[in-house]
């Protein structure tokens, strides 16, 4: 029986994988069990954020040593989804997702955390277009299969990391007669995230294939997936997919739940997802329950209409601080205050991921000691 | 009998006082009743934040028209305390504090909000030194008298805006043979805030005069005032003091309460101060109680030890975003999430103001409809 | 005979007009002679740069006192073109353009500086569209007439300040059923600058009316005006136009010249414009010639192809510092190094203004003492 | 006879060493000849700039493959001095310094470029103190010996990269009872650079050992070395020293020269150093001479008195952009405009390195084809 484990580890800087190395060397983690990484590094989260590439290079070098495979191959097998930017109270950390196969294991809980992954390439000229959406959808379906999740309703969180267009890539594409959708790197990241969200929605049957075209991306915000979490970054050239859900076919004590956040002030959504896992915040999660929490995953977005509950915000008009850095810092302040821990994954750029102007939260917690 | 009122108003930009103008023209606010302003403008909160000066100039010009006094005189009579930086979900707004004297009024509640103000000049070379501390203490005592608050325990919030040193002022002072404590503008703002906090603590009998010397500022963090809120800015040359407390001698329906925040994740402090005012967040303040809240005032600080509850934060090591902008965004995200409103005053630079690495929160609410 | 004068004045902060006040009070400048201001304030130059509004409010209040006209009227008569952002070696300053009429004056030089101004409103929904281009062209023609410049070749510099779209204005326009060309404030500033440049080119007969349509803006960079300098900002709602040229009908000793800069490294363009005015940099302008220089006006642009002379630059991929702040700082470093003075007007956003990836430089100098 | 070569290479991102790899694989560079690297990466140059660590990790991995030595050893043998921040027109690049020993070589020019390197550890608690100064001086003397330069006047450029204090390191040192000079990371970088400059001045006999004490660092700016170039960064724990000079004992066609820059506008210093190498800028270096230039190394500093030639600058008062980023962008704009190439090393933080408020420039050029 397969069993999923999640190790949430801290880093001293983006090239510091010593915590994972210690677990591998000490025998707690088997290098070959590592199937995915989701983490927050301390960059700016934008096009020129190289903390993600630095971390990934270091990770793959470490795994390469222990697995005896070249890093260049591992990078195509193990999704490493990093969101740059630990604004405010967030703490740089990474969650290592492992799958072990224990023939002797028996089921302890009705359902337990199940994990599946997949990769799909996308060309620069397709970024943010229908071809991109479809490549994501295919990869998500493949990851669901791979996880052995039978019901789509048991999927709670689909993380996709999409490539984006840099000035250099755009120039090359134009020279090759294949102009990208936009040459503005920050805009291309937004289109890539939109395509990822549409792809997840398509794979999860949340929208129909004829419901959208290229123009719907970043325009028709009624289209959304409340379970999609999309990042985009300069360091990847393929879509990387991680599906997280619950399944009766898996052992282990972890379970995942998710909730929508209707806007950036929706503390209720945070309480809801915790309640779903049997955790009562009062108003903060008590210490013994904090220890049950293995991973907190949040997507959020500065409301593009320029106000929140009728009051003007200034995130979109700020030339000094990128709007995504603003919203990550604010929502992380809220969520970390409820869970009492800064090691949370809060990622901006939630276009089409959850309600417009809001986002989503997923939490993985142990069922052991629950109540 | 005197009665305090607080009008919380939004602005479209730092030079937009149209909301106040409308209230004055419409007769809701009498210009001569305005005694103080506390607000958040959308600058960066640093030395080069001119949104505060812009707002102040516009405000004084408006009051000048209605009061028939020159703006240059009003600016020495009406404290206008602005904190720059509406990071994340914060909404630019200002609270207008008014005192009206109604001989026919009778007491409705055992105690009600009382307001006192005072001004005290400080020379550039004294900024962040004992002479600065003492000038603040004297002004605070004067403002308490002025408010008619008899017990020091009834003081809940003392706002002081202190001058700081700019590169230009520092050069002038050095040329005059009176070197300032530091020539680094950001550092001088920190020293000024420390002096302000020490001054409040001295005036409120929280510390004894022989307990500290110049070296204690920004060094001995066991010295703190849980009721001090200090700002510093390039646009003022005097300490400006606003004392807020409760008094049986005042009419009106407002009351103020305060609580400490032990660190940036202390959501409990937020719930406590609300509970003190009879407001139950569940987890968010219900809409009818949101309407009772007149003003939310928060001070916070990036933990200088570099971690929060054992987990590293990156605010102090960030060359791109000033640490105060980080912490304001995070704590505002938390507090706004609980009260359901982005119109909150969250100000960074809480050195010696509440617990080290934490800060304080004060809320003014109507007692009408309370439970 | 009309005579143009230019006073280049420093400011201690964006609300400091004391240098102009002193000149007016001392009789050097007659308030009624002031026809335009061009200056650099120390904001960020973006949508949330309020230093421009602050300066303008202070200027108009000052002139209002001396002219006995309301500021609200003056603001519609005197173009006040401010570019925010004094990156690097630039020094905050403003040039006051004055016209005096001296019946007794006689011509000293074949041609002398001539100034004309005009205003033209533009609706939010028209920003960055053909209607915007045409409103600019009409205003430029009117300003040329107003300056009495007969030959278009004698026009050397046309400054236009255009309104842009903020999140708030965009929402209002959408609500009114008149969607703006873009809701992204930074993008709208770019479209506004493009429209301004097209308008100048049209007025100066550099392009024909059928040569472009809405889609040409920010797309067809073969269309450009080597004499257009366009700014855009949140604080104006009309196009404000200042035409600077030379004319035999004007007295005084000032003359203007201009040159294109082919890219951000084109030091040759700087030497050329100086040579045109009889000033030889060797490699820096000698002190006695520095004193002849009355005003230096530069437009520049980060090369959108991502490289300069074959080497990659990083301005467009930087999430921390806006690309316009990057290029202003670099080009100002070059120009200030040649002229030996940081009081230069260097403004970013040179789309369609001079060669693609480059820009333009205009200098006004006294002909007295020339060689 | 030993021969020095310098290869100036571009990178697509901080982890891109493909240009060097190509030269090694193609046989142009022998991996064992590489003795030092000086480069500019596209980070922010501050404490949280990880582009330097990323580049270094990638470089050492590459050399490790070709040299068959572990990267952990190479990092202690090959100084890799990176300055983060390619503001404005600067292009990310790195110069690879190689020494080859050719028994058959004969001297072509009276003197040619000579290179020496050395390493010296420094503890966190010593950073910015006399012990730090002395450790640097010892290492510089060792590198001069190592280069075989006999006369101190033949040393033209001494690059030192010093460790600094991060919040984490400071906390560890304090816990160990060894408090660092400062716990403010940016301030510790400044102290480290000062110690490096003092160490170079000491080694080059520019100052006497009794001329200074701990308090002189960052205070007595009459102490300076016109040949010191000091960087500081979070990624090194030893002082890394590279000495560049000319020597009759070396073959090859390269030669180095240096000049002081009296302030940030000193274009004359740039022309001087070029003239010293027989290169005449007119006003830009002609293309055939551009090709002779192998490396341009510049240090600069925002004038701490707040003005340049009597005009206020705003670099030190800017909360949004670090002052070092400002000055690098400006000075790079000037130097790149003269040499016609953005691949220049411009590093901020020039405290005690050249004239106060100014800095230094060194250029390495081929003597072949000179005139």
TrEMBL record, chains A, B, C, D:
Q: Which InterPro entries match?
A: AtzD/Barbiturase, AtzD/Barbiturase_RUA, AtzD/Barbiturase_RUB, AtzD/Barbiturase_RUC
User: Might you give the EC number(s) for this enzyme?
Assistant: 3.5.2.-
Enumerate the residue ranges of region (RU A): 1-103
Q: Gene3D superfamilies, per this entry?
A: Cyanuric acid hydrolase/Barbituras, RU C, Cyanuric acid hydrolase/Barbiturase, RU A, Cyanuric acid hydrolase/Barbiturase, RU B
Which residues make up the binding site for substrate?
52, 83-84, 193, 231-232, 328, 347-348
User: Does this entry carry the keyword Metal-binding?
Assistant: yes
The function of this protein is:
Cyclic amide hydrolase of unknown substrate specificity. Catalyzes the hydrolytic ring-opening of a cyclic amide. Does not act on cyanuric acid nor barbituric acid.
User: Would you identify the family this protein belongs to, as annotated?
Assistant: Belongs to the cyclic amide hydrolase (CyAH) family.
Broad class of enzyme this protein falls into: hydrolase
Q: Which domain of life is it from?
A: Bacteria
Which positions are catalytic residues?
161, 231
- NCBIfam families, alphabetized: amido_AtzD_TrzD
**What name is this protein filed under?**
Cyclic amide hydrolase
Q: What is known of its domains?
A: The monomer structure is formed from three repeating units (RUs) that share the same structure as one another. The monomer and the active site possess nearly threefold rotational symmetry, to the extent that the active site possesses three potential Ser-Lys catalytic dyads, but one of the 3 active site surfaces varies in composition suggesting it is involved in confering substrate specificity.
Positions contributing to Mg(2+) binding: 301, 350, 353-355, 358
Q: Where is this region: RU C?
A: 254-371
Q: Which GO molecular function terms does the record list?
A: hydrolase activity, acting on carbon-nitrogen (but not peptide) bonds, in cyclic amides; metal ion binding
């Amino acid at each position: 029986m397969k069993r999923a484990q999640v190790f949430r580890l801290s880093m001293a800087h983006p090239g510091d994988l010593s915590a994972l190395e210690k677990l591998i060397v000490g025998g707690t983690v088997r290098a070959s069990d590592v199937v995915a990484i989701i983490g927050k590094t301390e960059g700016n989260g934008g096009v020129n954020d190289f903390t993600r590439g630095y971390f990934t290079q270091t990770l793959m070098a470490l795994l390469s040593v222990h697995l005896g495979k070249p890093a260049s191959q591992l990078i195509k097998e193990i999704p490493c989804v990093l969101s740059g930017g630990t604004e405010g109270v967030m703490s740089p950390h990474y969650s290592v997702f492992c799958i072990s196969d224990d023939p002797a294991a028996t089921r302890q809980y009705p359902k337990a955390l199940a994990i599946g992954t997949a990769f799909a390439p996308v060309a620069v000229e397709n970024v943010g277009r229908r071809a991109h959406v479809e490549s994501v959808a295919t990869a998500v379906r493949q990851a669901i299969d791979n996880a052995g999740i039978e019901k789509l309703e048991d999927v709670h969180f689909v993380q996709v990391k999409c490539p984006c267009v840099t000035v250099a890539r755009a120039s090359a594409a134009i020279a090759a007669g294949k102009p990208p959708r936009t040459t503005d790197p920050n805009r291309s990241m937004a289109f890539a995230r939109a395509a990822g969200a549409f792809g997840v929605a398509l794979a999860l049957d949340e929208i129909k294939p004829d419901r959208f075209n290229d123009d719907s991306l970043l325009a028709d915000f009624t289209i959304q997936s409340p379970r999609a979490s999309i990042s985009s970054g300069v360091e990847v050239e393929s879509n990387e997919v991680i599906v997280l859900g619950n399944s009766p076919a898996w052992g282990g004590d972890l379970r995942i739940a998710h909730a929508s956040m209707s806007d950036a002030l929706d503390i209720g959504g945070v309480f809801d997802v915790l309640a779903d896992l049997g955790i009562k915040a009062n108003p903060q999660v008590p210490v013994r329950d904090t220890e049950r929490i293995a991973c907190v995953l949040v997507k959020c977005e500065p409301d593009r209409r320029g106000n929140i509950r009728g009051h003007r915000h200034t995130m979109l008009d700020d030339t000094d601080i990128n709007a995504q850095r603003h919203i990550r810092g604010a929502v992380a302040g809220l969520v970390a205050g409820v869970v009492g821990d800064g090691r949370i994954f809060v990622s901006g750029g939630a276009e089409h991921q959850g309600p417009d102007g809001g986002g989503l939260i997923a939490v993985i917690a142990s069922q052991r000691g629950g109540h």
